[in-house]
Write a structure and sequence with these properties.
With 1238 residues, the protein is an alpha+beta fold. Among the domains are: 149-278, Distorted Sandwich (Calcium-transporting ATPase, cytoplasmic transduction domain A), CATH 2.70.150.10; 382-415 and 671-740 and 768-878, Rossmann fold; 420-621 and 659-670, Calcium-transporting ATPase, cytoplasmic domain N, CATH 3.40.1110. The strands form 8 sheets. It has a 9-stranded mixed sheet with strand order 14-35-34-33-15-29-32-31-30, with helices on both faces. Strands 17-16-28-27-26-25-24-23-22 form a 9-stranded antiparallel sheet, with helices on both faces. A hairpin with a 3-residue loop joins β22 (527-532) and β23. The longest helix has 39 residues, at 871-909. It is elongated and about 130 Å long. The chain starts with a helix and ends in a 27-residue tail after the last strand. Residues 1-26, 754-761, 1130-1144, 1146-1151 and 1169-1238 have low confidence and may be disordered.
Length: 1238
């Protein structure tokens, strides 16, 4: 029962599971036991059900939990204590409503905002939990909501459905129990992957009776967050069968290209691997808000000190002076005690002086944050038209922190890239294709308006394919042998599976977008890959069907960095076609290709300089006898138990020699628009960008070069790939020593850390540029084993200009972010577009979600969302910088005006016998922060800006003060406090001295207490209005209206409160009839007000003038440039886009893994449907091979994906790009053209 109430009262944080949902309460689950179709057995272990909960509150818990969270703010608790004190009549000289009304307003506004946010989380949870699934219950398939699914249930999934929970695949509609899944929600990869059921369970098929009788028992690992690992055992019918990750379907995956499958639930709800990787939902607070909590404590301490001083003064005054009046006042014995009088006076002054931190400050802060959020939502330059998506500030509490970001952690796929690859250029027999020239043979820049090649001659072409060089089509039509052989190779050497949905409507299921782009290019140029069987490949070559006999498939692996096929054409010729990394293929060319190789290498350098991913293509004609003898040895090697891989690689190496070079392809891995320019601009703002991706090392590096994060002119790129903690430590320490020199070893041995330096002295002195690339398993050693190793990793990473972490899990992404948060006093931002990014988005100070191809989970978990990565530049450098600057100016001014207002009571205390008498009347005290001074400071905090958006983007160094927290810190607070103290001193003593002996025009005295109060109050309102006018850099109509309107409102209310009308209606509330009229009609009073204003303003004005003139800030300099540009309208100078010529070329950046060739040639991934007969081969079969059985032309509707859930293996090095950003206005602002040194 206690656990039930605990579950109701404690908000969920993503890492806590209520009792009754964890197995074996009181101890960690060490091993999981699951029995199929036996809920009674599984219920004994109290496994979690399939319900998920990401919301924080329920209807019952909202009020207590939300109030508890709000009163964690020191200020709210402070005002609650003040409210209680004001309810005690002996010490209160102010009415209780002056505190309770604004306090309730703050609590209600915040509660409504929190309730709205949590409502959307509830709605999202409800949508997921109420999805329907087919569950096998009591021998029948029944529709059940996801939240009712339990461990041990057998579930039926159909094509394109989300996987309900973590399932053991039992059977499927595909041969051999295969099924295909998309794992974008887990690892961000859109290429499909293959899973396969155990042979013993795949025979169950779709037979409901057999599935209902299935009573296998699984013993496996407990719930964990390892996406790429699963270990377990299935016990059934007395036999044990090992279970691995390739047998599992994880929650968040989508079933693709598979009609149906059945699975057994192993993990459900919060115990699934997806939810284990989601991280905790934390309550995010900005650094300014945390500082305000500290400052409130300081102010409270200052308030107590002032109260003690005044209480002591009261005690002394009562003893020396006041005791003479006790007899006349007829006080009781207790009240006549001087010490007790001092005690009461202390609490009275605590109440009177509490306005140094008025509750309206927090109301105003929430209003400003809300306004800044709307500015982001309304910004048309953050609108992405293709998806009809506007930017959205999903939280209102973090806007100013957008102006202080130092580290950005970015996903790659879907965030930096579009995950779309396009056949862009090629080199065939020494001739490049892909450029467009005009009539004068001048190169023409290709744009969206450039006319495309007409592929109407090919009825099977893909209408979405775009190519602009018509000379390549002409070369195909006239029958140039090299060109046709080039595209024939592309159509034959791959692992793509075709699916013909209707006559002529071909869909290619490619395991990577690279392969799909190359096969689609061959298709459009007349070499259409039409069908495949385990023994044949059918092409349509220029409209003519041609079937090739597939003799051997020389599979890819990460060492070979190439793949080859050996086929027999209809003429009986045996040919080997090879494609791979150019450095690998060039080593195996025939000596006669030397000249062509040099020419092609030049072309490859040009392609790489444009950031394209390249492959070299070659072929070889094989002699029948030589091939037959080689094939016999290959068949023998395939049956060897020991060192099979080595023997096969030797045979592959032997046959892939004396190749004839055909040319090279250049594929563009399309980045999102404006990514390189955005990264360059953010780097100039001293923001470090780390890429955290699940992709393979080569792919991540390739994108790094494309984005200008990696460059050839960098001093060194460190690749950390150790497989043990010792190797990782050695590689990291070696990198650190290379950067800092041998002294680094001494620092490390002494236990000192670079990252612990608050001002990052070491980092600032590093002039050379380095990059760090670390893979997932090395990162795991660095993060999980040793604290010292973790520190070395952070030191090296912070010394490098670029950091790329590849092959990382969602949890590792969060761990990297947490590492920086824990050791660096810096604001972090994480940006991603998939469910695999949710964990780091929640962990970072600021989470940004991109609505991409991987669903909306990242958007739902984020604080801000928009449609493209390039908008991050505008979000930070414009909205973030403005929000931070506005909030800082608002806080400085607010503290100044309230110290100036409140401390007048302190000075007055020395002249009123420390009696806790207020200077101002109660109405002025109530209305000062609500009416007289609230709107001007709100207008400044809402609209003020030092320079416009164009110059904010053009000079990214303007962002630096936010990172260094220069505009509002403890020193700034102390400065504005001193300014307020000085102003309060002048406001009190100048009128006091001048009014003490002043007389009216008629000779009467004007120094009565109420006239004195009006003089000080009027001086105060005018002084703070002039001050905000000086503080405002950007005047709008709203600013003018609020400043002058507030002054007018003050005088209107002042005269109204002292009017005859209000006195006649409320004589006890407004007793001072005609006082304002009498006082403010005197010239002497206005002279006092003028002199007080001048004395208050002139010192600050002089200091500001001298500072701007002698030590101008970067903002001051840019402001002068902005003014000059308005007068002169100069031409913008843009940096030319410079193409980088590079020796590094991209490699075989496909998502391959060893084993696909075997899967294709075995036919296990194919569904066979009889169609027209395969044309007979004109040549007889090789004598070394047994003749294949007659086959029919088979259309393949299955698909090959990444076997066993492995990741991308890639061939060769990576490409590079060398573009210097130009000034481009893409809606995200302009890329910087120059820098100004402050």
């Amino acid at each position: 029962m206690a656990a039930k109430w605990l579950r109701m009262l404690v908000p969920w944080r993503g890492g806590w599971t209520p009792r009754g949902k964890e197995p074996r309460p009181g101890c960690a689950e060490e091993e999981r036991h699951v029995r199929a179709n036996d809920r009674l057995y599984n219920d004994k272990f109290s496994y979690a059900d399939n319900r998920i909960k990401t919301s924080k509150y329920s209807i019952l818990t909202f009020l207590p939990v939300n109030l508890f969270e709000q009163f964690q703010r020191v200020a709210n608790a402070y005002f609650l204590v003040l409210l209680i004190l004001q309810l005690i009549p002996e010490i209160s000289s102010l009415s209780w409503f002056t505190t309770i009304v604004p306090l309730v307003m703050v609590l209600v506004i915040t509660a409504v905002k929190d309730a709205t946010d949590d409502y959307f989380r509830h709605r999202s949870d409800q949508q997921v939990n109420t999805r329907q699934s087919q569950v096998l219950i009591q021998g029948k398939l029944q529709n059940e909501k996801w939240m009712n699914v339990r461990v041990g249930d057998i579930i039926k999934l159909e094509n394109n459905q989300f996987v309900t929970a973590d399932l053991l695949l039992l059977s499927s509609s595909e041969p051999y129990g295969l099924c295909y899944i998309e794992t974008a929600e887990l690892d961000g990869e859109n290429n499909l992957k293959v899973r396969q059921a155990l042979t013993v369970t795949s025979d169950l098929g779709a037979d409901i009776a057999k599935l209902a009788e299935f009573d296998g028992e699984i013993t496996c690992e407990p719930p964990n967050n390892k996406l790429d690992r699963f270990t377990g055992t299935l016990c059934w019918r007395g036999n044990k069968h090992p279970l691995e990750n390739e047998h599992m379907l994880l929650r968040g995956c989508v079933l693709r290209n598979t009609d149906w499958c059945f699975g057994l639930v192993v993990f459900a709800g919060p115990q699934t691997k997806l939810m284990q990787n989601c991280g905790r939902t934390t309550f995010k607070r900005t650094s300014i808000e945390k500082l305000m909590n500290t400052l409130v404590l300081w102010i409270f301490g200052f308030l107590i000190c002032m109260g003690i001083i005044l209480a002591i003064g009261n005690t002394i005054w009562e003893v020396k002076v006041g005791r003479a009046f006790w007899a006349y006042l007829q006080w009781g014995e207790l009240l006549s005690n001087a010490v007790y009088s001092g005690f009461l006076t202390f609490w009275s002054y605590i109440i009177i002086l509490n306005t140094v931190v008025p509750i309206s400050l927090y109301v105003s802060v929430e209003v400003l944050r809300l306004g800044h959020s709307y500015f982001i939502n309304w910004d048309r330059k953050l609108y992405y038209g293709e998806k009809d998506m506007a930017a959205e500030a999903r939280t209102t509490t973090l806007n100013e922190e957008l102006g202080q970001v130092e580290f950005i952690f970015s996903d790659k796929t879907g965030t930096l890239t579009q995950n779309i690859l396009i056949f862009h250029k090629c080199s065939i027999n020494g001739t490049t294709y892909g450029e467009v020239y005009d009539d004068f043979h001048h190169k023409v820049n290709i744009t969206e308006k450039t006319p495309c090649v007409d592929f109407s001659f090919n009825p099977l072409s893909d209408p979405k394919f775009r190519f602009h060089d018509s000379s390549l089509v002409e070369a195909v039509k006239v029958g140039e042998a090299c060109v046709q052989e080039f595209f024939r190779l592309l159509a034959l050497c791959h692992t793509v599976m075709p699916e013909e949905r209707s006559e002529g409507e071909l869909v290619y299921q490619a395991q990577s977008p690279d392969e799909g782009a190359l096969v689609t290019a061959a298709r459009n140029f007349g070499f259409v890959f039409r069908a495949r069987t385990p023994e044949t490949i059918t092409l349509y070559e220029i409209g003519r069907p041609v079937t090739y006999q597939l003799l051997a498939f020389l599979d890819f692996n990460n060492v070979r960095k190439r793949m080859s096929v050996i086929v027999r054409n209809p003429k009986g010729e045996i040919k080997l076609y090879c494609k791979g990394a150019d450095t690998i293929v060039f080593e195996r060319l025939h000596p006669s290709n030397e000249d062509l190789m040099d020419t092609t290498s030049e072309h490859l350098n040009e392609f790489a300089g444009e950031g394209l991913r390249t492959l070299a293509l070659a072929y070889r004609e094989l002699d029948e006898d030589v091939f037959g003898e080689w094939m016999e040895r290959l068949q023998y090697a395939s049956t060897v138990v020991g060192n099979r891989e080595e023997l096969l690689n030797e045979l592959y190496e032997e046959v892939e020699q004396d190749l004839m070079l055909l040319g090279a392809t250049a594929v563009e891995d399309k980045l999102q628009e404006g990514v390189p320019e955005t990264i360059t601009c953010l780097s100039l703002a001293n923001i470090k960008i780390w890429v955290l991706t699940g992709d393979k090392l080569e792919t991540a590096m390739n994108i790094g070069y494309s984005c200008n994060m990696l460059r050839d002119d960098m001093d060194e790129v460190f690749v950390i790939s150790g497989h043990s903690s010792l190797e990782v430590a050695r590689e990291l320490r070696s990198a650190k020593e290379r950067i800092l020199g041998p002294s680094c070893a001494k620092l490390s041995s002494a236990g000192k850390s670079i990252s612990s330096s608050s001002d990052s002295v070491f980092e600032e002195t590093i002039i050379a540029e380095y990059a760090l690339i670390i893979n997932g398993h090395s990162l795991a050693h660095a993060l999980e084993l040793e604290v010292e190793l973790e520190q070395v990793l952070l030191d090296v990473a912070c010394l490098c200009k670029t950091v790329i972490c590849c092959r990382v899990t969602p949890l590792q992404k969060a761990q990297v972010v947490e590492l920086v948060k824990r050791h660096k006093r810096a604001v972090t931002l994480a940006i991603g577009d998939g469910a695999n990014d949710v964990s780091m988005i929640k962990t970072a100070h600021i989470g940004v979600g991109i609505s991409g191809q991987e669903g909306t989970q990242a958007v739902l978990a984020s604080d801000y969302s928009f449609g493209q990565f390039r908008y991050l530049q505008r979000l930070l450098l414009v909205h973030g910088r403005w929000s931070y600057r506005r909030m800082c100016k608002f806080l400085c001014y607010f503290f100044y005006k309230n110290f100036a207002f409140t401390l007048v009571h302190f000075w007055f205390g020395f002249l009123c016998g420390f009696s806790a008498q207020t200077v101002y009347d109660q109405w002025f005290i109530t209305l000062y922060n609500i009416v007289y001074t609230s709107l001007p400071v709100l207008a400044m905090g809402m609209f003020d800006k030092d320079v416009n958006e164009h110059f904010s983007l053009r000079y990214p160094s303007l962002y630096r003060p936010g990172q260094l927290n220069l505009l509002f810190n403890k020193r700034k607070f102390f400065t504005c406090t001193l300014h307020g103290v000085f102003t309060s001193f002048v406001l009190f003593f100048v009128p006091y001295v001048l009014c003490f002996s002043a007389v009216r025009d008629d000779g009467a005295h004007v120094s009565d207490q109420q006239a004195f109060a009006i003089t000080i109050a009027t001086s105060l309102v005018i002084v703070v209005s002039v001050q905000i006018g000086l503080d405002t850099d950007y005047w709008t109509a709203v600013n003018h209206f609020f400043v002058w309107g507030s002054l007018a409102m003050y005088f209107a209310i002042l005269f109204a409160m002292h009017s005859d009308g209000l006195f006649s209606m409320f004589p006890s509330q407004f007793p001072y009839i005609g006082l304002a009229r009498n006082a403010l009609t005197q010239k002497s009073v206005w002279l006092v007000i003028l002199l007080t204003t001048v004395v208050c303003i002139m010192p600050m004005l002089a200091i500001r003038f001298l500072k701007t003139d002698l030590r101008p800030s970067l903002s001051d300099k840019v402001y002068l440039l902005q003014k000059a540009s308005r007068r002169q309208h100069p031409q913008e100078q843009s940096l030319k886009r410079v193409r980088r010529t590079s020796s590094r070329r991209s490699a075989y950046a496909f998502a391959h893994q060893q084993g696909y060739g075997e899967l294709i040639t075995s036919g296990r991934n194919m569904k066979f449907t009889a169609s027209a007969s395969t044309p007979n081969l004109s040549a007889p079969p090789s004598p070394a091979l047994s003749p294949p059985a007659p086959v029919q032309n088979m259309s393949c509707t299955g698909w090959i994906g990444t076997w066993g859930g492995g990741g991308e293996e890639e061939l060769g090095d990576v490409d590079s790009t060398g573009e210097s950003p130009g000034v481009t206005d893409d809606g995200a602002g302009k890329t910087p053209t120059a820098e100004i040194t402050a």
